[in-house]
Design brief:
The complex is a heterodimer of chains A (235) and B (329).
Chain A (H helix, E strand, L loop, with lengths): L1 E9 L3 E10 L3 E6 L6 H10 L7 E3 L2 E2 L5 H5 L2 E4 L11 H6 L14 H13 L15 H14 L4 E5 L7 H17 L3 E5 L3 H7 L2 E6 L4 E5 L5 H8 L3
Chain B lengths: L1 H21 L9 H4 L5 H37 L11 H18 L6 H25 L3 H24 L3 H11 L11 H17 L1 H7 L3 H6 L4 H23 L5 H13 L4 H26 L7 H20 L4
Chain lengths: 235, 329
């Protein structure tokens, strides 16, 4: 369980606070907020550090107590910034998921190879192993990014706008895949996105950033899309 | 696939070494040393040990070091156009060496090769630091390149200013050095050069794991657990050491660090830096050997300084990369 109590998110100025939130395993959370309200900041601070002490705990241990190395085995952040490099093939890209586990020179053990092969098969990527990451389609690259995060074997997966470059059917496929993964591999999944309809459909719980009260709101009652929009974009 | 590339690279390297050793001086025939008459033998022996072998070793060393530096900078800055000369690191070495030589003659201190290497490395380090600080703020790879070029031009002007104030003997010493040549190193300095090169290459090899993560960009590397600031210092030290070594002994040699890694990446199609570092090192040596063979073959027609030849070959490559890459930057 990933617990937040009186957690403040922001750089110099406060973006929003989380009063009391507990993220459970095998659940997909959709995080909605207008641009600039702190979605990405929140995800990045969780991954790279910079939150106030005593406010975030994972499995009853303070989150900031985990070293950066330990954290990379607990949490992976998936964004769509990587656009491929012509000289890097998909296999090498996936292998970087084992980065926190390999030794000083980064050589893969047979067990690492097995894990890579397993998740690649799970996401139908084996036929792309030798293909350059620069020539993958956007959908294939997003699948590879998710596979890399699974290969990292972290209990927490954070998605920063996972579907923004994709066409509609691919978007649905990716969201469906994320939902299946959360249940099948027992992951805590948070998706920050602007795609309200799609994320509402494929998530279990909705989190909204209220820009006026600067609070994270946990939605327990069913809300329609216009109601959500009214909360995150009050003006 | 990779074994094939390795074997091709090594065979090409050995063949070029063989050709380069055998190349005739002036009107001599090929492999003159082994076929020389008794009376001629001593002269041929001198030619071989005083000129040929040190030059060959320096070609291999400089190609290897500069190409690996280029690879490290390209991956770290996520910019295929990076290289020690184009980012102004070489000019930084230049400036510090000029100051050292002039200062040395002013205070009449005898300069050791160690002293010059140190000041060249310090220059490369300082200017590398400026580039890294700028790169933290400016993400556009073309802007970074322009800043490097401006820095280089500015420093070259400052260097000329210093030279106008210097006495004749140190001016001569400095301008000899700044043409860029592989022929100024004697056999007795070779062990020092080789030791520094090997230290630098081992250090570069130890950085391969974080380098692999940096292919995804700085932020993604941090997300995988790379300590970015520590890695930045380590990389800068390695690059400064290797660039400084070559600049101190051979003067500025442009573009090797830019062309070779790009060709290797095109050829090998791998992002695993364990392979890339080794392949780039071998390919760099091949490139420089090729250059000295071309220089020697053209000698009857025109005497080409090595730096001129690498620039002649390198500038078009930069242009091609810029034209191809311009859509993304």
């Amino acid at each position: 369980m990933f617990k937040f109590i009186n957690c403040e998110i922001g750089h110099q100025s406060l973006l929003f606070t989380i009063d009391d939130l507990a993220l459970e395993k095998a659940t997909v959370y959709a995080l909605f907020g207008a641009n600039g309200t702190g979605k990405s900041t929140f995800l990045h601070k969780l991954a790279l550090g910079g939150l106030k002490k005593d406010t975030v705990t994972f499995e009853n241990k303070e989150w900031e107590q985990f070293s950066i190395k330990e954290r990379t085995k607990l949490l992976s952040l998936i964004d769509n910034k990587f656009q491929g490099q012509h000289f890097m093939n998909t296999k090498e890209y996936l292998a970087l998921g084992r980065f926190p586990y390999t030794g000083y020179l980064g050589s893969l053990s047979p067990n690492d190879e097995k894990i890579i092969a397993h998740y690649a098969e799970e996401l139908c990527l084996e036929h792309l192993f030798d293909k350059s990451t620069a020539t993958l389609s956007d959908g294939e690259r997003q699948r590879a990014t998710i596979a890399k995060a699974l290969i990292q074997e972290t209990p927490i997966l954070l998605f920063d706008e996972p579907t923004s470059f994709l066409d509609y059917p691919t978007k649905r496929n990716v969201m469906q895949m994320i939902q299946t993964i959360a249940k099948k591999f027992n992951k805590i999944v948070v998706i920050a996105a602007h795609d309200l309809e799609l994320c509402t459909e494929f998530s279990d719980q909705i989190l909204l950033i209220d820009p006026i009260k600067k609070r994270l709101r946990i939605v327990n009652e069913p809300l329609t899309i216009p109601e959500i929009v009214a909360i995150i974009n009050p003006n | 696939m990779k074994t094939r590339i390795y074997s091709v690279l090594i065979i090409v390297l050995l063949v070029l070494l063989f050709i380069a050793i055998g190349l005739p001086h002036g009107k001599d025939h090929w492999f003159a040393y082994w076929f020389s008459s008794e009376s001629d033998r001593e002269m041929q022996y001198k030619l071989l040990t005083v000129f040929r072998i040190p030059e060959l070793i320096m070609a291999v060393v400089s190609g290897t070091a500069l190409a690996v530096c280029g690879l490290l900078l390209q991956t770290f800055l996520n910019n295929p156009l990076a290289g020690p000369s184009i980012l102004g690191l070489t000019s930084g070495s230049n400036l510090l060496v000029a100051i050292t030589i002039m200062g040395g003659s002013f205070f009449s201190i005898e300069l050791s090769s160690f002293g010059i290497t140190f000041s060249a490395a310090l220059g490369a380090f300082l200017f590398g630091l400026i580039i890294v600080l700028v790169a933290m703020r400016i993400k556009s790879s073309v802007s970074l390149l322009l800043i490097g070029l401006m820095l280089g031009t500015f420093v070259t002007a400052v260097t000329s200013l210093i030279i106008t104030q210097a006495d004749a003997s140190s001016v001569k010493r400095f301008s000899m050095w700044s043409f860029g040549t592989l022929k100024q190193v004697g056999l007795e300095q070779i062990p020092f050069v080789l030791v520094v090169l090997i230290i630098g290459l081992i250090a570069a090899f130890l950085l391969t794991k974080p380098l692999n993560a940096f292919v995804l960009g700085e932020q993604n590397a941090a997300l995988l657990g790379v300590s970015v600031s520590r890695f930045r210092w380590q990389l800068l030290l390695v690059v400064a050491l290797l660039t400084g070594l070559i600049t101190a002994f051979c003067g500025p040699i442009a573009f090797v660090g830019l062309i070779v890694p790009n060709c290797v990446k095109l050829l090998a199609k791998t992002a695993n830096h364990k392979h890339l570092v080794i392949m780039t090192a071998i390919a760099g040596a091949i490139f420089m050997l090729l250059c000295i063979i071309i220089v020697r073959l053209l000698e009857p027609v025109i005497v080409l300084p090595i730096n001129t030849l690498t620039s002649l070959l390198g500038a078009p490559v930069v242009l091609v990369l810029l034209v191809k890459k311009v859509r993304y930057v």
